[in-house]
Amino acid sequence: MDDINLHYRFLNWRRRIREIREVRAVRYQERYKRMLKDGDTLSYQGNSDEVGCYVASRPLSKGNCYFEVTIMDTGVRGTIAVGLVPQYYKLDHQPGWLPHSIAYHADDGKLYNGNPVGQQFGPKCNRGDRIGCGIYADTFDAGLTTVFFTKNGKEVGSVVVPVAPDGLFPAIGMHSLGEEVRLDLQAEWGTEEEDSVMMVDSHEDEWGRLYDVQVSGTLLEYVGKGKSIMDVGLAQARQPLCTRSHYFEVEIVDPGEKCYIALGLARRDYPKNRHPGWSRGSVAYHADDGKIFHGSGVGDPFGPRCFEGDIMGCGIMFPRDYEDEVDDGEATDDRPKPGRVQNFLYLYDEDEEEEGDEVDQEQEGRKVMVFFTRNGKIIGKREVVVPAGGFYPTIGMLSSGEKVKVDLHPLSG
């Protein structure tokens, strides 16, 4: 009899363990509606009249207290929300609209804290921006916690909220056609990274225009869709090349799927969805085919193809009497005089062409010699006309996974 009772107790124990496992499997299951999930990418699948919502499988905790979302496409309206919600949040509502939820909305920069009416909180967010959300773990045990939000690694603001019994789960909401984000539930952020954040911010200041390109220190990463020639990611420096800074370099860290990486010079108002070299007022060397593109979508054979680890460079051989333009009226009294800086790449090049017959040309529209390098060696030159305002270092990328490291001042120091 004891053996029979022991047998039944064993069977009952196994059944209870199986039930517990089933409950846990249901408990830790991600939920989403009107969204397509492909790996770490979420895209809206509704008709723009209904909200799509995603809720992660596990809540934030002391060991995992932060996550980030990169906006791949803002779609029609850019109605993307990032925040925290209870586990069984209604998936036909944006995060932040219902009680016990909170979210930062990209389209209007407002914070929604358990209310469909938001309050002004931070800047609006666009394609390529990273929105982060986290909790300060040191207040987690007190029944309240401080939820904070970030944009591109920089804190936007914070608010104290009660902690739901089942925790606070990462959530993303969307509400218009074409919206797409990339989710990183393992992202890290903290005050101990303040120094690196400051470094990133200082390098961001060097860029005047960024489209579908994410900056991290000297690293540029393509974050566009890469599905058509209109999905070009563009990074353009804030300052044009001049006699004091006439050369820059790019190292291919990751060629991505196709290595559609282009390095060159372009006018300040260059179209954001065109590779450098494709349109008027630009010239560029393309890594994937080794061709040079000069204001045309058709390139000419120019140099070797470039691969991971290669360093591509671009510079201008300015005539000795060339006078730099003053950009946006900035004062230049504290800058070195152009005549005191030698453009040694021009002075010591044996193939230098005489430009004496063009000395009297107007500064605007003057011809200069643009040169390109690969791993420190000049591979070719092209005579071009400088557009009004000057030539700005410009980098284009067009396929998933592409990353480059940029040095805008390799000859300084």
UniProtKB/TrEMBL annotation:
All copies of domain B30.2/SPRY, residue ranges: 1-190
Pfam families to which the protein is assigned, alphabetical: SPRY
Signal peptide start-end: none
UniProt xrefs under PROSITE patterns: B302_SPRY (PS50188)
Superkingdom field: Eukaryota
Annotated protein name in UniProt: SPRY domain containing 3
